[in-house]
Amino acid sequence: MKDLTHGYPAKVIIKFTIPIMLGYILQQLYSLVDSKIVSEYVGPDALAAIGATVVVSNLIIGFINGLTQGFAIPIANSFGARDMDRLRKNVAGTILLTFCVAAVLTVLSLIFIEDILIALGTPIEIRQDALDYVNIILAGIILTAIYNCSSNILRAVGNSKVSLYCLMVAVVANVGLDFLFVSVFEQGIKGVAYATIIAQAMSAILCAGYLLVNYKEILPTRKDFSPYQGMYGNLITTGLSMGLMGCIVNIGTVILQGAINDLGKNIMTAHTAARRVFDIMSVTVYTFGIAMTTFVSQNMGAGKPERVRQGVRHANIIVTVITTVLIGLCYAFARPVFEWVTSTKEVSIVDPAVMYAKISILFFYVLGPLFVFRCSLQGMGRKIVPLISSIMEMVVKILSAFFLVPAFAYKGVAFTEPISWVLMTIILATAYMTGRPEKYIKSEVD
Questions:
Q1: Residue 186 placed within a domain
Q2: Is residue 106 part of a domain?
Q3: Could you tell me the pTM of the whole model?
Q4: Inter-residue contact 218 to 88 (CB < 8 Å)
Q5: Per the domain annotation, does 255 fall within a domain?
Q6: Is the residue at 174 inside a domain?
Q7: What does the pLDDT read at residue 443?
Q8: Structural domain of residue 237, as residue ranges?
């Protein structure tokens, strides 16, 4: 277990973030290689089919990830306060709620996924491929939930390395399984999905197994499943706040995807590739937000508001430096990267992807602080303002789908998220600067 309440904040935050960042980058690099394998061995239509389903699966998986991140806030707060009895009870509640939510989401998503794809206007020629792929992915929701629950409990008590090691094993296996199922067994798009859920099973077993074997002091006993007063209310509101943030944003993304689908298969392929690269770039700043959730939660529990403020300042400086480096890399290498990912030099595919990346990256100067402020507010126990900011992003995406994209085609898509980032950061920064951490320490510790 790692105590984040001591040491120079910038050093502590960077050291804690690096394993998280590497884990997310590994996941995104796998997605990039996955796209390459699909485009090379199955074809561009298959890549478009996956792209048509990603927004739906991300909506569900993103909700579970956000939910378990939210559950981890009371755990981290209890750890910072050195209240181990309350910590174990929070872990017990987290496990029960995670399994219940995962079971419900699996059933509902499998029932309604075909209707959702039809509602999104998924082209008929790729619809069956999309359905074949996403049904397998959705059947593995429980595996994703187990991994996210385990990794977020570990991060709450300061261990950000184990999830990285588990992902390293899973990603290597996933790439190998992709080639096996697609190239050798010729399973096509189904093979890609099978490889993914097998790898998810591996990461879930490894992470949960490590937690069970090495962290027995925080594992609940039978008596810990008897909650303290207000425990489930706190877990549910904190979990839902973070889960709904991602869910609300992804609802907007799903609607925006419907507008993208109307632009044709080439644009769908370009956008799928662009999002793969965007996701790799964005995790370098997004993960500092994840780290700040734990950093702030622990320090709020320890009653150290000045350290919270210092950590937020340091994190904002770090993400600004990272953004400057990313801009240089993007403008230098975007075109060859997209030609490689899509396995084509077709300008109707590569040019839109390059445009999307070059526009988005310039606004990372706003996106980085957005993640820092939003997650820091969550760590302080402020659940409403981050949720409002996410609603703002959803509204912008919906308005873009109906007005911006029809007027400006794919360029409208490229500017949609940057517009929302600016508005969200204004809201979040204002809320943070006008609400000092001292005001929220008592309610978090009590």
A1: yes
A2: yes
A3: 0.79
A4: yes
A5: yes
A6: yes
A7: 43
A8: 12-445
